[in-house]
Backbone:
């Protein structure tokens, strides 16, 4: 038997090259390198300089769901739990007053459209371009979405 030194796959005799890795096979198995993990994607949040406004106040689990959908749409969002004891942001007992979602003021209309859309409603190319434009804060050349 022959082995690929890159991926560690085993091949029958007569095969000289790994079809996936394009490297010559060896007579002895080798330990494949550990799989590489992709770099973590930074979470897009809203800073005080971004003119944040409250989009909604909902249960913590729904707030995280909305935040994920908004970030996937290119809209930065900050999730803030409200403490019933101090009235300030924090993780303490956010269920009593709800968890606040903050977005940039310029993204407010696009963010509302994203979270109010029925989950099974398709997004047209025009709506997707409008959301991307609103999130980027400007016009795209030739209607291109990046």
Residues:
């Amino acid at each position: 038997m022959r082995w690929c030194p890159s991926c560690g796959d085993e091949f029958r005799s007569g095969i000289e090259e790994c079809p996936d890795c394009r490297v010559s096979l060896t007579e002895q198995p080798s330990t494949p390198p550990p799989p590489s993990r992709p770099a973590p994607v930074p979470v897009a949040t809203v800073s005080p300089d971004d003119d944040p406004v409250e989009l909604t106040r909902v249960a913590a689990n729904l707030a995280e769901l909305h935040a994920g959908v908004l970030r996937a749409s290119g809209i930065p969002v900050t999730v803030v739990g409200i403490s019933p004891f101090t009235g300030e942001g924090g993780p303490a007992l956010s269920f009593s007053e709800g968890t606040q979602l903050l977005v940039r003021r310029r993204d407010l209309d696009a963010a509302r459209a994203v979270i109010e859309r029925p989950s099974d409603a398709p997004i047209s190319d025009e709506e997707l371009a409008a959301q991307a434009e609103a999130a980027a804060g400007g016009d795209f050349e030739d209607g291109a979405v990046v």
In short: The two ends are 48 Å apart (CA to CA). The beta strands are 2-3, 10-11, 52-58, 78-81, 99-104.
